[in-house]
Amino acid sequence: MKRKGSLPNLSSSLGAKWCGNGDLEGMVVDSKKFLDPTTGPVITAAIRYRYNDYPDGFPHGLFIQDAGVPIGVDWYLTGKLLSPSSKWHLVKLIWYFFCGFLNRAFGKFFRRRTDHNISDEIVRVIDQNSFTRRIFILLGMGRDRSDGWISLGPTGEAKINWSLDKSELHYDRVRFEMKRIATQLGGVFMDNPLTHLKKVVAVHPLGGCAMAESPNEGVVGTNGEVFGHPGLYVVDASILPTSVGPNPSLTIAALAEMIADQFPAEPT
Length: 268
Fold this sequence. Notes:
alpha+beta
């Protein structure tokens, strides 16, 4: 609407101060015991870590929570991926078929017990979920920098321009703590491969229409009203001008209630 001129008085800060609330996904694989990630809801506990601030004084802290695996995904992976134990059952299955061939071709010279339950071995090959039962998904979040910018592409699609560089301290700390958890579980930590490309998957996007005291610093005032457009309000995660650390849903809800309480009363 700003590009088309429908809202000509919008602040030039529109699109600024985007961040992903420090989101980082990690995984523990091959734990010592079964963790059954398909059992129970996602996020049943959280660990809060207190770290020193960034060198420039920007406050830092982080949370790590447990995630889960949808049972449909577990079924898919169990059927598509061969776990280490299922590979052994596959070898046994091939050996049974090979022995059967030898018995038929050279039965006079090759005698071997053939009363194996082949169907059980097939099931063990295609339905062996011990690998997925030893997986533990970790959700990290915290205080990253709100230095991203949302812009529009030629066809109107939103593009996020954000760099991990200034927030790398946060992500290094999250990975360090996730590795400690993996060690305690007797497993191996697997990082999100996107981080090696300086990218993250953010499920808590914040900012882009930041709250501020003036249009020089943000798009809406502290009551959610858009600068330059009286009566137009924005009440969602886009008005948060910085990362908040934990899951921001309650913060967003509280902010929405506060703004709603400030709406002018209907004329009597």
